[in-house]
Design a protein that fits this description.
The chain is of the alpha/beta class. The chain has 15 helices and 13 strands. It has two domains: about 160 residues, Aspartate Aminotransferase, domain 1 (Alpha-Beta Complex), CATH 3.90.1150; about 250 residues, Type I PLP-dependent aspartate aminotransferase-like (Major domain) (Aspartate Aminotransferase, domain 2), CATH 3.40.640. The protein is globular.
């Protein structure tokens, strides 16, 4: 092996990134006019359905005060921004205790927020529980720099969002303690769930909070899809569960409020991944804010983002309309994608009513079409290679910690033309 001038931890990243097809995909992106043979990317959770409306709003004159060209009030955002976010989330998440500016710590996106959470709550080698399947980037966000250990929770045939799943989390806590001699310090939820596109019932949230109280574990709810919910007019079962924020739970007698934290951001609900605005919400734990005061140097939001988001979130007339229209388009996109899948014999996880994606079993359909290919295992990788040959990129279930081989996540929020082309290529890859 040639000599490396990097640290051991950096060498690990280099090795992993060298086999990542994402970079090739982004360099050769599909365009119906200028690059019709390029890669269709329906693996990254981006929502472009409302970009025209978003751009129309932000491209009107927004007078930028000179103070936003300075460090202003520091790395964690202006008081004006925090007040705007607090008022907006009080309206939509309906917290049991109203949010105040002092409860919020803005960051340049939720990846930074997740890293801050991991660094704050878990020492190197300590555990962070994460139910399977999961958002694949949770792993590096929570462990790459902090040295914490992500502990995937296996559910077997138990619904990961049902009450029976709580016992699986407890088993994982005890197993990690036995194997390592260290403690689990965080239980990480994605609510609404990515990639399943469903919401945790309120009683399950409460039961998980009680579990965290029993073992003195931080309960962290990533609610980045909180307002990206929609009416599922396609699936009869399971019945959709209405989204209720962890903030809406009265914690009295359930859990020490210092252990409860919620994350939210602009990337998903406003289709604005590039704006880079996330927020850590910790209402009762002042130590979190003190500990991260210096770390915000590494996660500062830009003055332009601070100003833009402050203006937008204060405009309830616009945001109410935007959220409502976005939810209508999400319902249409979900119906389009799932109808196509059913028409082509592809099974998917039903009951979705949130997020941008469908969790689908391409492996089963592939084996039905190619019985001889089912031997030897790793069906997901076989399907993935066929997809890449057809130049369509999906999130492989293996990346999402799927307990079943052959599952993939497809994103349906980039317009009918792109989605139609993506679905056609997927079917061609399976049939070819």
């Amino acid at each position: 092996m040639p000599q490396s001038f990097l640290s051991t931890r950096a060498q690990t990243v280099v090795t992993n990134e060298s086999t990542n097809p994402f970079h090739e995909v982004t360099k050769d992106s599909w365009n119906p006019t200028t690059n019709p043979t390029g890669y269709i990317n329906v693996g990254i959770a981006e929502n472009t359905l409302m970009h025209t409306a978003f751009l129309k709003y932000i491209n009107k004159p927004l007078a930028l005060p000179a103070k936003y060209l300075t460090y202003n009030e520091g790395g964690s955002g202006s008081t004006r921004l925090k007040n705007s976010i607090a008022a907006f989330l009080n309206k939509h998440l309906k917290p049991a205790t109203p949010l105040q500016a002092s409860h919020l710590l803005p960051t340049n996106g939720l990846s930074s927020a997740l890293e801050h959470v991991s660094w704050s709550f878990a020492d190197p080698g300590e555990g962070i529980l994460l139910g399977r399947p999961y958002y694949g980037m949770f792993i590096p966000d929570l462990s790459l720099r902090s040295g914490s250990v992500v502990v995937p929770v296996k559910f077997d045939d138990v619904d990961p969002l049902a009450m029976d799943a709580v016992g699986k989390y407890e088993e994982a806590i005890l197993d990690f303690q036995r194997r390592t001699g260290k403690n689990v310090k965080v239980l990480m939820l994605c609510h609404p769930h990515n990639p399943l596109g469903r919401c945790y019932p309120r009683d399950v949230l409460v039961a998980l909070m009680r579990l965290c109280q029993r073992y003195q574990i931080h309960f962290v709810s990533d609610e980045i899809y909180a307002l990206s919910v929609f009416e599922n007019g396609v699936d009869e079962r399971p019945p959709a569960v209405r989204f209720e924020s962890a903030l809406s739970v009265d914690l009295t007698g359930i859990i020490d409020p210092r252990l409860v934290h919620v994350l939210w951001g602009m990337s998903k609900d406003f289709g604005a991944n590039g704006i880079r605005l996330g927020v850590i919400i910790s209402q009762a734990n002042r130590d979190v804010h003190f500990a991260l005061g210096g770390s915000t140097l590494y996660s500062s939001i830009s003055g332009l983002t601070d100003h833009l988001v402050s203006v937008m979130l204060q405009d309830f007339e616009f945001t109410d309309w935007y959220i409502r229209r976005n939810q209508e388009l999400l319902a249409e996109g979900y119906a389009y994608a799932t109808t196509y899948l059913k028409d082509h014999g592809i099974e998917y996880a039903t009951g979705c009513n949130a997020g941008f994606f469908v969790w689908m079993d391409l492996g089963k359909r592939f084996c039905e079409l190619h019985p001889g290919e089912s031997e030897g295992g790793d069906i997901g990788e076989k399907v993935m290679q066929r997809l890449l040959k057809k130049k369509v990129f999906l999130a492989n279930g293996a990346f999402c910690g799927s307990e079943r081989d052959g599952w993939f996540r497809i994103v349906f929020t980039q317009g009918d033309e792109l989605l139609s082309e993506a679905l056609a290529r997927i079917v061609a890859a399976l049939e070819g």
